[in-house]
Design goal:
Elements (H helix, E strand, L loop, with lengths): L1 H7 L5 H5 L33 H4 L19 E12 L6 E12 L3 E5 L6 H8 L7 E6 L2 E2 L5 H11 E4 L11 H12 L5 H10 L15 H13 L5 E5 L7 H18 L2 E5 L3 H4 L4 E6 L2 E7 L3 H11 L1
Parallel strand pairs: 3-8, 3-9, 6-7, 7-8
Antiparallel strand pairs: 1-2, 1-4, 4-5, 9-10
Helix pairs in contact: 1-9, 6-8, 8-9
Bound molecules: adenosine-5'-triphosphate and magnesium ion (MG).
The site of adenosine-5'-triphosphate (ATP) has 12 residues, from strand 2 and helix 4.
């Protein structure tokens, strides 16, 4: 039943999302450091949503308000002229060759492009997991290069959620323990109500004491989605999150990510090779040879297929 409901969200009608009442703006995204991980937009009534249990939780202040129709949202992430070179001399590879972009808060952005075009490199640099050779990344108002290692680690813990193709769950921990792990590492208390709400939302009630080896690939990835959302990060980065999943599990995970955007105001950036997966995003960036070759708002799935044919 839960699956059916999630499936039905896999291809949301654009009009449905546009009809959402806009959330009031929170404080400037970076203004709330270092207590930014607390539940946010405190004075804002949460928007009505398809699932009241999900909607009851307002987004983090780092998860600044999505765009009011017609008005651009404040960017939660700004990258300026990013270069990332691996190696030197004749063997040097310019994995990123001048990438600039802005991500509005509360938007779902897909990144596509041929293998080796720099998608993973870009995600890692944007998330502060890798350092650009030159250029700047400003996440939730904080320029990453200005942080020392300790502060960068803390910012990553508080502001970034990462979902990997290979799930990256700890095998010795149960599903619940994996979901709680980012909070435990950060020494933060677990908001049990929020955790349980996430577990229910991702459809894992009844599987919470299972270890990863006892879960299907789709279930493991749903644990990873809940783990990415538990800290209410400013941005969730997902690098081919459906790459190891069958089509049914893929649809579920994509629907979850879509709902986190629509109902929680979450900002999501997802790398994918699958044009159908990319079509659930609001915007698509196509990387070719470390540069943004196309940047388009997605109106309909066919557009993504056409786009990919054009850049091939
Ligand atoms: N650690 C590294 N050392 C050297 N070269 C690297 C390293 N990581 C990536 N590269 C190179 O940088 C380029 C971009 O790699 P990246 O992994 O970002 O591509 P991608 O678009 O994610 O590809 P895929 O779709 O296959 O995952 C490639 O030419 C790759 O070989
Ligand atoms: Mg990659």
């Amino acid at each position: 039943m839960e699956r059916d409901r999630l499936q039905s969200h896999a291809r949301p009608a654009r009009g449905v999302r546009r009809d959402r009442p806009a959330r009031p703006s929170g404080p400037p995204a970076g203004a709330s450091e270092p207590g930014a991980s607390e539940p946010g937009v405190r004075d804002a009534a949460p928007a009505p949503a398809a699932d009241p249990a999900v909607a009851a939780r307002a987004p983090d202040p780092g998860v600044a308000a999505p765009a009011v129709d017609g008005a651009p949202a404040e960017p939660i992430l700004v990258a300026v002229d990013l270069h990332r070179r691996y190696g030197e001399g004749d063997v040097a590879v310019n994995a990123l060759d001048g990438v600039s972009l802005q991500l509005p808060a509360g938007a779902f952005t897909a990144i596509m492009g041929p293998s080796g075009s720099g998608k993973s490199t870009l995600m890692h640099v944007l998330a502060g997991l890798d350092t650009p050779t030159s250029g700047t990344v400003t996440l939730a108002g904080t320029e990453l290069a200005k942080l020392d290692d300790r502060r960068l680690t803390r910012l990553r813990r508080e502001k970034v959620g990462f979902i990997f193709q290979t799930f990256n769950l700890l095998p010795v921990l149960t599903a619940t323990e994996n979901i709680e792990l980012p909070l435990k590492i950060a020494g933060r208390p677990v908001d049990v109500a929020w955790r349980d709400q996430l577990i229910e939302t991702v459809g894992l009630s009844g599987r919470t004491d299972h270890h990863p080896a006892e879960l299907s690939g789709g279930e493991q990835q749903r644990v990873a989605v809940a783990r990415a959302l538990i800290t209410r990060p400013a941005v969730v980065f997902a690098d081919e999150p459906t790459g190891n999943l069958d089509s049914h599990s893929s649809a579920e995970v994509l629907a979850l990510l879509r709902r986190s955007v629509d109902e929680l105001g979450q900002t999501v950036v997802m790398v994918t090779h699958d044009a159908n997966a990319a079509a659930i995003a609001d915007r698509i960036l196509v990387l070719v040879d470390g540069r943004i070759a196309r940047d388009e708002t997605i109106a309909e799935p066919q557009q993504v297929h056409r786009l990919m044919r054009e850049v091939r």
